[in-house]
């Protein structure tokens, strides 16, 4: 996916919790939380996104430790869907 599509998706979901199902082109899908840290603009310009995987969400909620996040290249994303939409309506996902 390109930067504009990802940013558009994230801005629409700004008021809600940003737990997202991320589907990749060449790897298994997972749920995560997009972070906007101090380097957000720099990473976004390169289509890189800091995401806390679902397996680390509990630890991140208590510690707010940014090091629990991983950085992913947006070009590898196939679709994005909110946590709720991924269960309710598979067609709600944003295709690449």
Question: What would you say about this model in short?
Answer:
With 96 residues, the protein is α+β, with helices and mostly antiparallel strands. It has 4 helices and 6 strands, in the order H-E-E-H-E-H-E-E-H-E.
Q: What can you see in these coordinates?
A:
With 96 residues, the chain is an alpha+beta fold. The chain has a single domain, classed as Roll (SH3 type barrels). It contains 4 helices and 6 strands; from the N terminus they run H-E-E-H-E-H-E-E-H-E. It has helices at residues 3-12, 40-45, 57-63, 83-88; strands at 19-24, 30-34, 48-53, 70-73, 77-82, 94-95. It has a 6-stranded antiparallel β-sheet with strand order 4-3-2-1-5-6. Strand 1 and strand 2 form a beta hairpin. The longest helix is centred in the N-terminal third of the chain and has 10 residues, at 3-12. The termini are close together.
